[in-house]
Every structure is written in C-alpha cells, then in structure tokens.
Specification:
Strands 1-2 form a two-stranded antiparallel sheet. The chain is globular. The chain contains 14 helices and 2 strands, in the order αααααααααααααββα. α3 runs parallel beside α12.
Length: 346
C-alpha cells in the first residue's frame, strides 16, 4: 500500500509541474497567435489546460472504472471550487477575493457550472441511452449546454448591456489583455518551436501522469476500503487541481483576481462535457453507474458554486482568518459534506 501511495504522490507531482507548464506555454502561444480573441481559440486553450482531468477520465473509461470517471468529472467540482478559498487566503489586501473580482461575467461562468452539473444529476436519475449507441442522451445534452455556454461567455466578454458599477473593485486584466504578453519570463525570448516542444512534453507528461493517477487511485481506494468515486472526488480531484492552485496563486500575486476565479469556473464547466467522450471510449453510458455519493458530491459542488455566485453579487468585504465570508461558508459546506457522507456510510 505504501508503494502505491508513493506512486500516487509522484504522479500528482508530475501533474502539478506539467500543468503549470501547460498553462505557461498556452499563454505564450496565445500571445503570439491571439487565439484567445476568437471562440475557437478559447475552446482550444480550455481543452489544453484541462488535460489532467481529460487524461484521468479517458484512461478510466478505457478500463471501465466508472467510479473514477464520475468522481473526477462531477464529484471533483466541489473540490475544485473549494480551491477558491486558497486563492482568497492568498490575497494581500485586507478584502475578500469576490470583493475585488466583482464581475457579472464570473456570475455567468459560475451559473454555467451549476447548469451542467444539474444536467449531470438529471442524467444520473434518468439514464436514457440513444438507441444503437453507447451514448447517454443527457451526456449529449450536457455537451451542448457547455458548448452553448462557452459561446455565451465568449460573447459577454466583449461587454454586457448593463450599467453597473462595482465600487472599489480591482478585478485585474481582462482575458484579451493578459494574452497580449507572455507572462512567464523564461518564455519571453523563446522561439515558438521551443514553446511548442515544451507544450508537447508537458502534454505527454500530463497524459502519462493521468493514467498513473487513475490506476494508483483505484488501487488505493480498494486498499483503504472506500469507493473509487469518493476517492476520485477528493484525492484525485485535489491532484488534478494542483496546477490550478499554482497558476491561481500567480494570478493573485499580480492582481488578476477575476482571471483567477474564471480559470476555476471554466474548468469546472468543462469537466461534465467530457461524459460524452467517456461514453464513446468505454462503450457504455457512464452516468448509469453513478452512486448516491456521486450525487451527494455533485450537490455539494452546486451549493459551493452558488455561495460564490452570491458572494460575487453581494461582495463581502470583511475577512476572517484571511478568508471572505463566502469562502468560509464554502469550506464549511465541503467539510460538513464529507463528515455527513462518512458518518452515513457513504
């Protein structure tokens, strides 16, 4: 068991380092080719920076480890959202993250997370399979909702028909402003061939680490006597969130508060869209194999996301123990969810 745990930690470390370089190189490529200014570029960049979750889910689909897939793509949303509390604690100013981020665009992005997660819960409760295919009808619906939501987010980044002022907000640079420059010093003078080589190496390392995380995670779940879905929704989701934590800290340090939250919500909205791919790879409607704990974690993810939606609108200024009230509530909900699930035998 100790050997398997060490392997899991090594794969998590690889995911962390490779994920950081995935983000850095995609930023450099975007700065060169202005991909982020187009919808297709937004789609490509979103997929590239979500490679840890993609590799974990698809490798699990190949081996028919449905608990890992569902725990990563739906259960992991709660863990990924709780990461915002770590970003909140990173704030140097004595205000909450949502106070400074203050953005209706973030509210829409968070609402999209809620939309696709609710659709996933509906798929679990009403598993309708498209005749003569392995596709769940709701998996297709989730993908359509995500794609349409991505298009909406792309459109509203150009402006909303509102006249609203978030007093004293400091959201930082917009996406198109960040993409105009290469952020990381080591890539500023690098040739594009070197950037693409680093991207390819980081992608390959992420894919290998994802396969390793899935395999060792499944073994650890069996050794520890817990469900693979529960393990995926906690430990594997945390491993997949490590690059988001690192890049989120970097965004906070330079004052890009809005972008720090946007990267979290964007990744969370994308994950359930992968069910349609996992259905095709595994040859089965994956969501048919969901358990009560999967629904529980999905609901916790929705609750925490809604807390941050309210926080973005209400903008709590005061902090306690370096956290805004929304982050404190979100953390309490997550911890309470774990305790209740464990106490009830989940």
């Amino acid at each position: 068991m100790l050997h398997t745990l060490l392997e899991f930690l090594v794969f998590a470390a690889i995911t962390w380092v490779a994920g950081i370089w995935l983000t850095r190189t995609t930023d450099a490529i975007d700065a060169k080719y202005k991909l982020g200014s187009a919808f297709g570029g937004l789609l490509i960049l979103g997929i590239t920076t979500s490679l840890p979750e993609i590799s974990i889910a698809i490798s699990a689909a190949v081996q028919h480890h449905y608990g890992i897939i569902i725990g990563t793509l739906v259960g992991g949303i709660a863990m990924q959202t709780v990461v915002i509390s770590l970003l909140d604690a990173r704030m140097k100013e004595p205000v909450s993250l949502t106070f400074n981020a203050a953005s209706l665009t973030l509210v829409v992005e968070a609402a999209l997370v809620v939309l696709v997660t609710v659709a996933a819960i509906l798929a679990i409760r009403t598993p309708v399979v498209i005749p003569h295919t392995a596709l769940s009808l709701t998996s297709v619906l989730i993908f359509i909702l995500w794609f349409g939501g991505l298009w909406l987010v792309y459109k509203i980044r150009k402006g909303l028909p509102w006249r609203a002022e978030a007093m004293e907000a400091k959201p930082g640079r917009e996406h198109h402003e960040r993409r105009q420059t290469v952020n990381h010093p080591s890539l500023k003078k690098a040739s594009m061939s070197r950037v693409f080589a680093i991207l390819a190496a980081a992608s390959l390392a992420t894919l290998v680490a994802g396969v390793g995380l899935q395999a060792t995670g499944n073994s650890l779940a069996a050794d520890w006597g817990i469900g693979s879905g529960l393990f995926a929704a906690t430990f594997i989701a945390l491993a997949g969130a490590l690059p988001n934590i690192s890049t989120g800290f970097a965004s906070i340090d330079i004052g890009d508060y809005k972008l720090a939250m946007s990267d979290i919500f964007g990744g969370n909205a994308f994950m359930p869209a992968l069910f349609v791919v996992c259905d095709l790879v595994s040859g089965h409607a994956v969501l048919q194999h969901a358990t009560a704990s999967d629904i529980w974690f999905a609901a916790i993810g929705i609750l925490i996301t809604c807390v941050y939606i309210i926080g973005l609108i209400v903008r709590p200024r005061r902090i306690f123990l370096r956290l805004g009230m929304d982050s404190i509530i979100g953390l309490c909900l997550y911890i309470a969810g774990l305790i209740i699930l464990t106490a009830t035998g989940g």
